[in-house]
C-alpha cells in the first residue's frame, strides 16, 4: 500500500492506495498530524507534494517509516514535460495532469483545478505536457473586490443559484464573480479545443463540485485528481527500484 500527501500551507490531504485504488482519504489534517496518520497505516512508500516550507522536516520523519519521495522538479514522472521553467511548475499542477493521463491514456486531456487559483493544464494523447494558465479562484475574486474597494461587502461563500442580473449589491457581486468565472472556464475550454486535440475535460480541486452543473461542456469532476496523480508518480519511481 502507498500513501500520497498533498501538503498545503496550513492543511494537508492524504490518501491510501492499493494497486491504484484509493482505499482511504483524509482531508483537513494539520501538518503535524500527517506523521501519525501515515505511521498508523504502515505503507510501503509515501510521496509528498507541497507548497509548505515544512516539507523537508516531514520527509525526514516519514523516511524513518518507509521510502519517502517528494515531488520535486528532478523527480522522474511518467509524462514528457515541455515547460520552459520546470523548476517553477507547481507540484499540484504536474500531479493533476499525470492523474488525468493515467485515467485517460492516449487522449488529449484538459485539467482544470478550481481552488485558491484556477489552473488550466493540457496534456496530449502522447503524454506530452504543454503547460497551461493560472487565474484567480472564486474566493480570491470575492476578496479582491472587497479589499480594493471602499464599500463593497465580502461574500464568504458563493451561492449555488446566482442570477444573471443581481437585484442587490450582494447578488450583483455574486453574478459578476460566478458567471464571470463560468464564462472564463467555458471560453478557455473553447480556445484550447480549437488549437489542440481535446477528448476529455476534468475539473478537480476544492470548488470542482460547485462548477459541476454550471459548465456547458461535458466534464468529469474528480476532486482528488492530484492525489491520484501522486500515486501514479510514486508507482512509476518505485517500480524502477
Short description:
With 241 residues, the chain is α/β, with parallel strands linked by helices. It has helices at residues 31-41, 55-62, 91-103, 138-147, 169-195, 225-238, and strands at 2-7, 12-18, 21-29, 45-50, 68-70, 80-81, 109-114, 117-123, 128-136, 200-204, 220-221. A six-stranded mixed sheet has the order 6-9-8-7-10-11, with helices on both faces. A five-stranded mixed sheet has the order 3-2-1-4-5, with helices on both faces.
Q: What this model shows, in words?
A:
The chain has 241 residues and is α/β, with parallel strands linked by helices. The chain has helices at 31-41, 55-62, 91-103, 138-147, 169-195, 225-238, and strands at 2-7, 12-18, 21-29, 45-50, 68-70, 80-81, 109-114, 117-123, 128-136, 200-204, 220-221. A six-stranded mixed β-sheet has the order 6-9-8-7-10-11, with helices on both faces. Strands 3-2-1-4-5 form a five-stranded mixed β-sheet, sandwiched between helices. The longest helix has 27 residues, at 169-195. It is globular and about 60 Å long. The model has no long low-confidence stretch (mean pLDDT 93).
Mean pLDDT: 93
Provide the low-confidence segments as ranges: none
Tally of strands: 11
Shape: globular
Largest sheet: 6 strands, mixed
Oligomer: single chain
Helix content: 25-40%
Strand order of the largest sheet: 6-9-8-7-10-11
**What sequence of helices (H) and strands (E) makes up the elements?**
EEEHEHEEHEEEHHEEH
Q: Kindly, what is the distance between the CA atoms of the first and last residues, rounded to a whole number of angstroms?
A: 16 Å
Tell me the number of helical segments per DSSP (H or I, 4 or more residues long).
6
- As a percent range, the share of strand residues is 25-35%
